[in-house]
Design a protein that fits this description.
The complex is a heterotrimer of chains A (about 290), B (about 350) and C (about 425). Chain A is mostly helical and about 290 residues long. The N and C termini of chain A lie far apart (about 50 Å). Chain B starts with a strand and ends in a 28-residue tail after the last helix. Chain B has one domain: ABC transporter involved in vitamin B12 uptake, BtuC (Orthogonal Bundle), CATH 1.10.3470. Chain B is globular and about 65 Å long. Chain B has about 350 residues and is mainly α. Chain C is an alpha/beta fold and about 425 residues long. In chain C, the strands form 4 sheets. A 5-stranded parallel beta sheet of chain C has the order 2-1-3-4-5, with helices on both faces. The longest helix of chain C has 22 residues. The relative contact order of chain C is 0.12. The chains are: A mainly alpha (about 290), B mainly alpha (about 350), C alpha/beta (about 425).
């Protein structure tokens, strides 16, 4: 029995890394642009399909392929933000951004269906099915690489935020947008680039998700609710929080799975509600100043 | 346009009634709606009517809470599904059959209200985006419970008792019940909009902290609106279940349900009374008709593009934008109409900075 | 200062009034010219009399061409269309050409309800075929019962379909496909036939939360337990992709010798196989309720080498030595490409629906649905590419026989292996080979 629990914990940590990769972009976008990007699930799948095409056409290794898909998704993100998100303002901005991001998700899904059809696919590579034997457990390479990638990306984003001028502008915008404007920060540029970065990071998440799960254009819907729960738990806008929350939630779900898989997901969402009751800003979120 | 509210004695707000012309319009619309099954007896038409009216009621109920308070709920499917399941479970366990099931409908409204209380107490403590995600989380908890608990029938779901009615007239009683729900909800929305309660809700939407400072019991007000909204949605969910004769977890608790409702309310005009009605009447029959006749995923791309166009071009909704447009047309050359006083008095030193473009 | 938004200005009324009227017009248009027919006496059994030989026979169906069930819905469409083309090439039904009218329901029950009402009350189709999945078949069959149509379908086999109040009252549902509950019995019989020293000792039963996947696995579990096979894992998991890894890892950790997987599609099987591979675990016998019967969609997803040894129950496979089935497979390949193994089980199910309906029309001499319903309930045995069809009082096909199929020959051959000694069965691979990636 205890071996099962250890297995579940190890699984949970590794899979949590994958979810962290997918969630980090979402929380970054929220922190700066103050919007919930429902299209995030669709973007993960888009990243998965892009990696799929690269691997199928050019036989590029999955991780090498990221050198192409990440910049590509960055451009896509900037374009989407500039065309559809930027014009939204006013009192109804929350519902407008919800609808716009839902619309973007629909369009991405429709295009993917038209190009690829409904049949499920999966990314394959030698390290997807092979594993290393450690302390009596088998750890699959793809999950190890994915977790390492998640750590690297989180570290990279922290470097960006805390060691570069651009990062300072981003943090300033996150803290107080009006003040940031007053000291001359170009909010539109910061917003566009941040959205682009958020989507670009999602390309990595998409690749690892696509290597560990079968996916088709419809798969984004199941994901988005979990990702939203993770970033709220981690604290909106907190990158490290997203990683911690992802690992925590997925590990919790994995352990409950031993007892009863059909209740494990319920525990996932119930844990979110419970934590928010005690600490409404999540693990590492900042207290909202004027929460309107 | 002159003010909606007139201060009467004792500070009570007196309702401003409809002008004669407006009343005539309402009566005419109502007459058309009541006569609809007679004018178009084909069951296909009344079928569209049933679903359209169900969503009119849902969108209006959603708007009573979310449109007025500004708390966007993506969890109203919780009430819809719970109402459906309540009717199904009651009919099954109490062995009610045939038309007797209609008498159980108020039970679904009660179920919706009862669920809304703990749901609201938990969710309304947080704001905006966190609120949205909590409603999503609670929605999934309910959907998963519907799958897992035995008395909900699990993945098989529940069947409604059989009604041995003829096909040509089967839809009509459901049409009239849905019509009654819709009209009742619209009337309630109208009353709330014009009342002090509605004023308090809108004050919360504009600036909750300030409203609190002015003496509004925010939690109480929000919760009341949430409970009302939940009760109506539960009732309509039960009507839907009985009409369709079946509920299962993915259809009773449909993740896209709330997004459709948001779109309907938004398209017509969030916070207005006639907005959600118009939005529902456009979107629900439109969606039913278009889906049946499209083969590929072009329809999804089209749908998404339509949403984008709608949000970007008509950001305040059809009713307010259309009304303003017409007013601008007809008032050219005449003196400007004094604007109504805003819902919460603005202190001069906190004039809002120009909205950032992000 | 914000401008006021008059919520109920006169113009707003005019706008909403116009919108309501235009929507009514839209709804009215959808009912086209048939509003006059409702004045005639309406009975609950509509009896469309036989059309004259120049008019086509119209058959209406709602299918999930988009949405959750789109893969299967599109396969069903292919099956219906193949059948209609075949019938028309041979002179049609009773000399009339068959015209299919298929509407998309996007996997939504509300839409399915609307579609069938449109097909019956506006388009006045002569006959009806069923949609895909039990979720959609139950509300659709209620509509068909109201209008008095025989509802022949191939993809709604959960007990809720047959036990629905409408079917219990009107008995109009006819499922041509294999009832699922006993489909794993041949596999259990094989285990029972092994000498005690060779019989596997432990078994794991992971099941997706689905009314198709669970009953056969649960029956197999109770039967195998009675034989002395120990149950080391038996849990139901949610039918979503993110929930497969944890149960799969636990099954691997249990080291069960038999794995009976209650799956409904290829991704479930693939996820379990991948997890087993990562955990360096190979069960001696591995059977899944669905997925490996999807032909090349399965082998391309898991890899041909890995597919070897995988077993699945069904009543049909592309190699079935039946003239009508072979003709159907060839027609599919010439129209859609690929080869015989590309044809999935859905296509055969849909095709069988058409065949059963054709035999009923021929036997009753017309498209009178009431007569068709009583004919189909008369205990007659009909033929289809899936084998014999005979309906009980609730519309289940009691004659259908389950076979067990296995991938062999390095993933190139999908062969019938059980029951041992049945016509068409070849030798079974009794131990699954190791993973090949």
């Amino acid at each position: 029995m205890t071996r099962e629990i250890y297995q579940a914990i190890v699984d949970g940590i590794l899979v949590g890394g994958v979810y962290a990769l997918m969630a980090v972009g979402l929380t970054l976008i929220f922190g700066v642009l103050d919007i919930i990007n429902i299209a995030q699930g669709a973007m993960v799948i888009l990243g998965a399909y892009l990696s799929y095409e690269l691997a199928a056409r050019l036989h590029l290794d999955l991780f090498l392929g990221l050198l192409v898909t990440v910049p590509a998704m960055f451009v896509i993100g900037v374009v989407i933000q500039w065309a559809f998100i930027r014009p939204l303002r006013g009192r109804e901005r929350t519902s407008m951004t919800l609808l716009v991001s839902y619309a973007v998700a629909l369009i991405i899904e429709g295009i993917l269906y038209e190009i690829f059809g409904a049949n499920p696919r999966q990314l394959s590579a030698s390290y997807v099915t092979s594993s290393v034997h450690v302390f009596g457990f088998y750890l699959s390479y793809i999950y190890l690489y994915g977790f390492a990638l998640a750590l690297a990306l989180v570290a990279g984003l922290y470097l960006l935020l805390y060691r570069t001028t651009f990062g300072r502008s981003v943090r300033a915008t996150m803290q107080d947008e009006t003040a940031a404007r007053l000291i001359g920060i170009n909010i539109s540029r910061v917003a566009a680039i941040t959205y682009g970065i958020g989507v670009a990071v999602t390309a990595a998440g998409g690749m690892v998700f696509g290597a560990t799960n079968a996916f088709n254009p419809n798969s984004g819907y199941d994901l988005i609710s979990r990702l939203l729960a993770i970033i709220i738990l981690g604290g909106l806008g907190s990158i490290g929080g997203a990683l911690v929350a992802a690992v925590f939630m997925i590990t919790l779900e994995s352990v409950v799975d031993i007892w009863q898989p059909t209740w494990a997901i319920v525990v996932f969402y119930a844990a979110l509600v419970l934590v928010l009751l005690i600490r409404p800003t999540g693990f590492f979120g900042r207290k909202a100043v004027r929460a309107q | 346009m002159s003010e909606d509210h007139i201060e009467g004695r004792n500070g009570l707000t007196r309702l401003r009634g409809l002008s004669g012309l407006q009343l005539a319009f309402v009566v005419a619309l109502l007459a058309v709606a009541v006569a609809f099954p007679v004018l178009f007896p084909n069951p296909v038409a009344t079928n569209y009517g049933v679903y359209a009216l169900i969503f009119v009621a849902v969108a209006s109920a959603w708007n009573i809470f979310s449109g007025l308070s500004g708390y966007i709920s993506l969890g109203h499917a919780v009430f819809f599904g719970s109402g459906a399941y309540t009717l199904g479970i009651a009919a099954r366990d109490w062995h009610v059959t045939g038309t007797g099931v209609f008498a159980l409908l108020p039970l679904a409204a009660v179920a919706g209200a009862l669920i809304a209380v703990p749901f609201g107490l938990v969710a309304l403590r947080v704001r905006r985006h966190t609120f949205i995600v909590i409603t999503i989380a609670v929605f999934f908890i309910f959907q998963l419970m519907a799958y897992n608990l035995s008395f909900t029938g699990g993945t098989t779901g529940l069947d409604a008792p059989f009604l041995p009615w003829g096909a040509q007239t089967y839809n009509n009683p459901f049409y009239y019940i849905a019509l009654a729900c819709a009209v009742g909800t619209i009337a309630l929305a109208w009353l709330i909009r014009r009342s002090r309660f509605g004023l308090q809700l809108r004050a919360i939407r504009d600036d909750e902290d300030r409203a609190r400072g002015l003496g509004v019991h925010a939690m109480r007000v929000k919760l009341t609106a949430f409970v009302l909204s939940g009760a109506i949605t539960g009732l309509v969910g039960a009507v839907w279940f009985f009409y369709l004769t079946q509920v299962q977890p993915p259809s009773g608790f449909d993740p896209l349900f709330d997004l459709s409702v948001v779109l309907m309310a938004f398209l017509g005009g969030l916070g207005t009374v006639s907005g959600p009605v118009l939005g529902a009447l456009i979107i629900e029959p439109g969606q039913l008709y278009l889906t049946a006749n499209t083969n590929g995923y072009i329809s999804e791309i089209l749908l998404g593009s339509l949403f984008l166009v709608a949000v970007l071009l008509v950001p305040r909704g059809i009713i307010p934008t259309g009304g303003e447009y017409l007013r601008r047309l007809t008032s050219r050359g005449r003196t400007a109409i004094p604007a109504a006083a805003p819902s919460v008095p603005q202190a001069p030193d906190t004039a809002p900075v120009r909205e950032a473009q992000r | 200062m914000r401008p006021s938004h008059p919520w109920l200005s006169k113009r707003a009324f005019a706008l909403s009034g116009a919108a309501v009227l235009s929507v009514s017009v839209l709804a009215a248009c959808s009912s086209s010219t048939s509003s006059s027919t409702s004045t005639s006496t309406s009975t609950s059994t509509s009896t469309s009399s036989s059309p004259s030989s120049s008019t086509p026979i119209t058959i209406g169906a709602s299918l999930s061409l988009t949405g959750d069930f789109s893969t299967d819905g599109q396969n069903f469409q292919k099956g219906y269309e193949l059948w209609a083309a075949d019938v028309n090439a041979h002179g049609g039904l009773l000399g009339h050409q068959v015209v299919l009218k298929i509407l998309n329901d996007a996997s939504s029950p509300t839409q399915v309800d609307t579609n069938y009402q449109t097909l019956f009350a506006t388009d006045h189709v002569n006959l009806a075929f069923g949609p895909f999945s039990s979720l959609l078949t139950t509300p659709a069959s209620s509509v068909a019962a109201r209008y008095g149509y025989a509802f022949v379908e191939g993809a709604g086999g959960a007990p809720s379909v047959f036990n629905s109040p409408a079917n219990q009252a009107d008995h109009n549902v006819f499922d041509v496909s294999l009832p699922i509950k006993d489909e794993l019995v041949p596999f259990v019989n094989y285990i029972a036939s092994l000498p005690a020293s060779q019989r596997p000792k432990t078994a794991a039963y992971p099941m997706a939360d689905d009314p198709f996947a669970d009953p056969p696995v649960q029956l197999a579990q109770s039967m195998l337990q009675a034989l002395g096979v120990k149950t080391v894992y038996s849990k139901i998991f949610p039918a979503e992709v993110a929930a497969y890894k944890a149960p799969a890892d636990q099954v691997a950790a249990s080291n069960a010798q038999i794995v009976v997987l209650g799956s409904t599609d290829v991704p479930t099987v693939q996820a379990f196989m991948q997890a087993f591979e990562q955990q360096h675990y190979t069960p001696k016998l591995f059977i899944a309720a669905a997925g490996p019967d999807q032909g090349s969609a399965f082998t391309s997803a898991v890899g041909k080498g890995n597919a070897v040894g995988m077993m699945v129950p069904n009543s049909w496979y592309p190699g079935y030595a039946n003239a009508a089935s072979q003709a159907m497979v060839q027609a599919y390949v010439s129209k859609y490409g690929g080869n015989a193994s590309s044809v999935g089980a859905d296509v055969a199910e849909a095709y069988s629906v058409g065949q059963v309906m054709a035999q009923a029309v021929a036997a009753t001499g017309g498209t009178d649905n009431a007569k068709i319903i009583s004919y189909l309930h008369s205990g007659v045995t009909l033929t289809s590419v899936q084998g014999p069809v005979k309906f009980d009082s609730l519309g289940e096909n009691g004659q259908s026989v389950a076979f067990i199929f296995q991938w062999q020959n390095g993933g190139a051959a999908f062969n019938q292996v059980l029951p041992v000694g049945a016509a068409g069965s070849v030798a079974i691979i009794s131990t699954k080979p190791a993973w090949t990636s």
